[in-house]
Amino acid sequence: MLPSTGPDVAAACAAARGAQPVWADGPVKGRVAVLQRVRDLMHRDASAILDALQHESGKNFEDVQNDYLGTLAALSYWTAHAPRFLADRKVRSSSPIAIGRSTFVAYDPVGVVGVIGPWNAPLLLTFGDAIPALLAGNAVIMKPSEHTPLSNALLPPLIEEAGAPSGVLQALCGGPTTGAELVDDVDAVMFTGSVATGRSVARRAAERLVPCTVELGGKDAMIVLADADLDRAAGGAAFYGLANGGQVCMSVERIYVDAVVHDEFVQRLVAKVAGLRVGSGQPAGMAEISPFVAPTQLDIVRAHLQDAIDRGACVEVGGDVVELGGRTALQPTVLTRVDHSMTCMREETFGPVLPVMAVAGPQEAVRLANDSPYGLTASVWTGDLERGAALARQIDAGVVMVNDATVVFTAHDAPFGGTKASGLGRRHGGADGIRKFCHAKTIQIARWTPKGEPLWFPYTKRRTRLIGRIGGAFYGGLAARSNRRRPPRGRTLRPRTPQISLDKYSQAHTTTKAAAR
Length: 517
Known about the structure:
Helix content is 43%, strand content 18%. It has helices at residues 6-24, 28-44, 46-57, 61-86, 123-135, 150-153, 155-161, 176-183, 195-208, 230-242, 262-274, 297-310, 362-370, 385-394, 431-435, 461-485, 503-516, and strands at 89-91, 101-109, 112-116, 139-143, 169-171, 188-192, 212-215, 220-224, 252-258, 314-317, 321-323, 328-330, 333-336, 353-359, 374-375, 377-381, 399-402, 415-416, 419-420, 423-424, 427-428, 438-446. The protein starts with 5 loop residues before the first helix and ends with a helix.
């Protein structure tokens, strides 16, 4: 594919604006039917899509299959729930002034949405984000990474074959300039990528006052406590840190292990990592570790490794570069004797490297997990679920899991996104994940209309004093008493894992450590 130029972007936006009103006209169920047919067509063309993903990324079969299946899961979720999420929402106002008036919220499409995707999961994190925007009635222009432009280019013909108007979904090929031109012309932006580019996208969107969601990098912490199932934790660290060649924003990127079990954990982790196979474009079952998709990523990972070694880190396994017929990979690597002076513990590595650091206990682990400019995901591994949940509340990240990692991304009902430099806004999140591509329009209908209203002109002293006494009584007394008596609407869930003091766990840790000595 040739890179798109400025005129190409302008032409794409013009075509999208021409198609969008036709696409948005009619009930949501009509758009749902089209996207369900797209899902069927993707099943039909699965081999071509998987081949394109492998060809453009060099990844092994299991990694591209996860990308493909994740996209089908997104199609299934959003098509199942879009009619309910986009239905008019009735508002029950507590204001006495609203008596006799019906209020509801309608969700109108914003118009044209630009989706700028990354190279690590090109289908799921580009077309996958286009799905809710399309169901909301928008036209979508996708700008996949210049490193992986092929797979998303297969989707616009499929949606037209499924019955959508030409131009409602388009794919542009190009780098940062194409992305910047797209942001300057669309009505909302969904971006996934680096922090530096995300800041630039957010600034351009802010200048135009268009909605913008940016999901950026992560330096995702894994905390392993002394009472954890160490074999499961080691297996989780290997898979969640090294799958897709470690090129996932929510990959385990740093591991804090209670010093009591540090050596045993490392031993188990090294045993699991040492047998992993490196390959490029391999068929099913032939390799676990994929190569670097972007050629520049190897330099970043090697710099992190060298910095750690120079500062005293120990390479327990791996560390060598592997040439794979035009692509490069790194043998999966486990580092020990690491600390926060090292780049590999502070900046996103985005490669198959697992640095493991011994800590004195849960509180030090949480402190170090929070000592980061990022806050995307984290995980706590422990045999005590109550303690795990309590620690999860103390970690400054958008998503925290207990005894698992990354799989929460598949829970489309839950919001996914980060704090600090990991981004703005959320993807997924049930109704919020599709309504963010809409303008919420409040409509109020006066059903009971007397000739005049008490608040209308002309003002009189008597009426003003009466309104003041009634308002004071209602808002200061009657309403407060009524609110105390009235139970909240809906079901209130009592937290299963209340905030608890961790003092007893710190004491128990000290006792355990002393016994171990």
